[in-house]
Amino acid sequence: MNGETEPTTGASPATSGAALSGESLDRVAAARERFAAGADDVHGVRPEILVSWYRCREEYEVSPHLQRAPAAAEGTSHSIEHDVVFAELGGLAAGAARQFDGVDGLVAVSDCDGRVLAAWGSRRVLDLAADSNLAPWSTWSERASGTNGMGTALETRRPVLVRGPEHWCRGFHSWMCAGVAVRDVVTREPLATLDISCWETPLSDAVLPWLRAAAATTEAKLRQRARHTGALLAAALADTREAPGTPLAVVDTVGKVVLANTAAAVLLGTPADAAAFAPSDRWMPQVPAVLELTRRATVRARQDPGWSGSTLLYVPFLDQPLPVAVRPVLDGSQVIGALLVFGSRGTGDPELQDAPDTGSPGPRPLPTRVVALREDRWVLLDPREIRYAETDHDNVWLVTDQGRLLAAVRGLDRLEHELAGRGFLRVHRRFLVNLGRVREIEQGFKGALFLATSTRGHEIVPVARRHAPRVRQALGL
User: Which parts of the sequence are annotated with region: Disordered (predicted)?
Assistant: First the structure.
């Protein structure tokens, strides 16, 4: 890797793929066997590999004895940004063999779920890869196939090299692979990966720089796309015919604000429309419910491009719910965002709630009180008094400004539904947190997050890994 020495967790120095000796591989293999058997103190393993092993063993529970990658399940629905990436990476992958003289390898492209979409290589390597199911419509996410070039690249922010026994699964130890994830330039979520793999052969030192450049080139095209969609969303706001002073904002498909007029900017806590507007800029709204609202609206609009809807949205600045109409913005047939009209109930689909549409005339009012029990007395709580809720089987305990109380409602799912739109977010299967009461954020081992809702005592809420991206978005991290 450009001659740089990589750090390790022990005394044995790690080297590039080209220089890694058989003795070094033997040490890694021995460390992996100890780690798979339950040991935590292993040496001679690069940190990014050891962290991946932790994920595979502790979180994903992948069998270290796996011999073949599993077949792919149905993947995440994708947008035009994915199409741009797949087309660009496909062209790069098809021509990769010309970049590395003398390397008989396989080049693969996978989507954001680790599903292999296409693979290129010599017939010999493709046949060997078929034995491991390193082929289209197999799944190489870490969750499915352990530490590997594609799956581990989806988990990290830079190109990753995985050599022989550094693979978590024993069946893949004959492969040397390197991968990089291409990420959305706005959300930084992975869209796809590009991977180069060789059978029992060290990879060229030129592979990682080439992967890094390939990702940068592809993300540059996505940045152009972001500028294009930003300009279209701004035009949609400018073309809106509403009464003067109506709060208006346009958001992208994940709920980040592209542009807002002065009235809406006050409600959302974002900059107002100004001469400094840049189409590729995005702003995190200070109304957490906007993110979930936009996600639901995007799903509805992709199913029915003519859809529009409305709901009540809790606005912390006003300390009350406010009607908001949602109108999707399209570029051809692609949903690129939505126009939010505050103070309007709209004329389309009347609901944007988790519950199925029951034909009710309007949105469900947001609760003004949460009922809890202290000994033999009922306690009526303002939702803002609740710092977080924790479930113990069907019992839900509320940690509040009035102490720890038992909620009247049974089940955390029901409480989450009741508090939808009030700034609460599910961060773990056992915890629901009031984001407005988060005071500190701790980062732990393997990228773990912990939320502190009070600085006076040890009041820490763990964030499950699958909820971490939404928590980071909601808190503007």
Answer: 1-21
